[in-house]
Structures
1.
Amino acid sequence: MDWNEVLLQRIREKQAIIGVVGLGYVGLPLLVSFARAGFPVLGMDLDAAKIDLLRSGHSCLADLPADEIKALLGRGAVFSTDYAVLESADAVLICVPTPLNKTRDPDVQFLIQAGTGIARHLRKGMIVALESTTYPGTTDELLRPLLEESGLQAGRDFFLVFSPERIDPGRTDLTLDEIPKVVGGLSPQCLVLAQELYGQIIQTVVPVSSTQSAEMVKLLENTFRAVNIALVNEIAIMCDKLGIDVWEVVEAAATKPYGFMKFVPGPGVGGHCVPLDPHYLSWKLKTLDYNARFVQLAGEINSAMPKYWVDKVQDALNQAGQAVKGSTVLLIGVAYKPGVSDFRESPALDIIELLEERGARVLYYDPFVTELRADGIRLEGEPDLNAAVDSSDCVLIVTDHPGIDWEAVASRARLLVDSRFVLKRQKS
């Protein structure tokens, strides 16, 4: 049987069953997009609480309304914690976490778990696509052998693909279907099928020559951001020492219509991509005896920004004749960016830890994050911003969430440290 032609036909007729492993910020929106396009879908995640939530018609993502989940269920979507649910799938998309361990090396335990679980239920004619960000070579060197333990051969019996996710939580100006999708296949047949599959939900599919190239594309995108954020953060420090308004400099430079892209300084970098992805590249190159100097330097600068802003808080308190120890410091915003509840790798976490190490009592206000449970931090958000400002010795703006009256905050605060230049931005 020509599995290539069978699968192409099933995809074109929207009969192909789409399974997604990992129903987080990447996997769940992807599942929704295929269901909207008319495909039958299966969702698999090892988190039983998440599966129970989805089965009951509730969303586990802040920017994906419950109505979308109810619509999925109405179309016959199946949610399960058991890999066996994937036996009927024609395509399985892997969207599991790929974090770093304490030594900043890739932690692929979730990917190994997914590959092993899928292999037990892999069948001929199935597409397996990895979307999780990782180092170049992962799809071919790690995932492929796991799947081939099934006795099936990649590129002949099943089709292996890498297509990097480009999900940006909270973004509203672009929908998932409007963001071009890069795909790389293990073989020409794999690539053709990947283009056809993703072309059903994405307006523009961008093919590259291999899974390794597709993996590298993702790392280039986020290393580019990490390096440029580090640059503008260092420019901010330089401007501070020179007595220059960095925001004025950034805005003026941004008027150049060519050769410049605007990045803004802040308390560091956060989220599931920029703080982590460049380290995959750095780690991989170390195995080839190459030192990725730009990547490492950018990481050092961005990682140092929380301490820079804690020092600013300490300086402000010292100038007011008050020590950090025993002072109450209010952080406004602990999410890693405006308008979302996601605090993964947020610089606020490091800021809180550093302030507490210096003896400060830390409070936080974030309209999107009611409680903070991460890296040993256990804090409840303040319910009333004005009351929190009034009870604090110093206020540090970390995340410039929309809807906050920053002028009112500035007028009430005894001391204000603005790491995001929110007030200058409003005045400009």
2.
Amino acid sequence: MSEYTLTIREVVPGDLSAWSVLWDGYNRFYGREGPTALPADITALTWGRFLDPTEPMYALVAEEGGRLLGLTHFLFHRSTTLAGPTCYLQDLFTVSEARRRGIGGQLIEAVCARARQGGATRVYWQTHETNATAMRLYDRVAERTGFVIYRKLV
């Protein structure tokens, strides 16, 4: 048990170094390292979008005792089936030593609160079928829709 309080907050410019450590961990988890690593310019572009008030892309971090323990990234977009915006939770990551403490669930709830503030009535996300640990959390906090994702590079 930590003597510090966990805080979920938006990223600020001074978070870049600590956020980068989390971002690198997230990408390693999904096998994006070495020859398949994200190019540095994509990471820089992504970070810049989080700080640009004209972009519909956002980042929240979980901070405890001055250390970032988790991150989530989300964005708003239109839908053909809803009048208001939809919120897509694109990335969610917690450092391994802080897992199973409820941080992922708190980050999801923080995104849901921001979605409501933004006029969205739906938050959705995806994970890899092998990510059984995350799926146990997701099955507790959300509905599994049954949709299968396809992707084609163009």
